[in-house]
User: What shape does this take?
Amino acid sequence: MLINFSDTATAFRNKSNFELRKSYVLFSTLAKPWVVQVGKVLSEFAFKTHLPVKGLIKSTVFNQFCGGESIEDCSDSIDGLIGVGVASILDYSVEGKESENDFDRTKNTVVHSIEYASKKTGVPLAVFKPTGMGRFALLEKKSLGHQLNEKEQAEWQRVVGRFREIAQAAHDFNIPVMVDAEESWIQQAVDDLVEQLMMEFNKERVIILNTIQFYRHDRLEYLQRALVHAENNGYFLGVKIVRGAYMEKERARAEEMGYPDPIQPDKASSDRDYDAGIRLLMENIQRVNFVCGTHNEASSQLLVSLMSEYGIDPGDRRIWFAQLYGMSDHISFNLAAAGYNVVKYLPFGPVKDVMPYLIRRAEENTSVRGQTGRELGLIKAELRRRKQEKHQPATLPS
Ligand SMILES: Cc1cc2nc3c(=O)[nH]c(=O)nc-3n(C[C@H](O)[C@H](O)[C@H](O)COP(=O)(O)OP(=O)(O)OC[C@H]3O[C@@H](n4cnc5c(N)ncnc54)[C@H](O)[C@@H]3O)c2cc1C
Assistant: This one.
């Protein structure tokens, strides 16, 4: 089975000409790295000094990449997506909070998103970020295996409690939850905790999923070990696989602190391990549920081909394709049209608080990173196609 990712009529079927042109202007603007850098500094300054920029941000980048400011705000976007066969994951994208009250609030929001998902058509999974549940420095210390003092131990127990409460809600409402991956130097603590929760909650079905970043050169081996661990301990392994979003930061820190770079030497190596990961998961599909989080056409096609080779139905709920809202609709919508399970991360949160997420998306979409060229090319092709279609002479009924 070959998916035609160039079918722009399917890719943009839920977008009007006006919306397409708006996205075109936005992606053209983001293509200029200096605009993104200036925008980043200006928006930080504007929010600090209470300048009225919210409206401008909301009608541009926020609307392109986010579902709304609250869970309920996302309802229309969820309905719009499921109307064309694409599901949503509510992603509370508030970052950079560090107080216990903030962590509790984030945990409550995630639990609420799970309950909401159980009642709303088109929201089959949930997600959260480890740094939304506990202090970065604590996750780092725990990952290094350093002894925690008494206060930190109590703090760590609260982090474990928040993870567990979310897993319990995921279990009770039957909405599996994914744990995002962030920087490598806090990942060990997250891997250990999620593994523990999988042993507890994934006995009969997958309730909690960890994330594996294949831009790390040690992760294929980690996946092999995780599969053996699941087999030996009688639980189902849940994973989301991605390439990884923090490459520059990872490389810079490794160089600055003088330890070996945890990232693959080049893009081809990340691609090779990502695809090897897909193959390994397919070989073990009896024990696995997985989410293939990528905007890469070749990896998405590889999974499609393997599913057909293994005789797995496109709609088999053990396998999901995932993309981010506002990006790579040509992958999401064409896969969904062919009957595959597709889900979009639908970020939400107050405009000011989702700025770090929006800046990451903006940076990812500069011409340097290469994603924009593809988005722009596809939008242009679709606008051209619609224009030609309009000027086609009407065919006479036979
Ligand atoms: C649904 C979804 C969920 C996600 N969740 C997470 C998450 O939890 N944690 C996270 O970190 N990221 C996450 N991401 C982002 C993801 O890791 C990638 O940054 C992004 O998707 C781009 O990679 P790609 O597979 O789409 O494709 P591509 O565009 O083919 O690959 C780009 C990626 O390749 C890698 N790469 C690029 N150049 C090099 C190089 N020179 N050397 C080595 N590697 C290189 C980098 O990882 C880069 O992001 C998620 C993405 C999606 C779609």
Q: What stands out?
A: The CA atoms of residues 289 and 318 lie 4 Å apart. Residues 180-181, 211, 213, 215, 242-247, 263-264, 266-267, 270, 293-296, 322-324, 345 surround flavin-adenine dinucleotide (CB under 6 Å). The domain at 68-351 is CATH 3.20.20.220 (TIM Barrel). The mean pLDDT is 94.
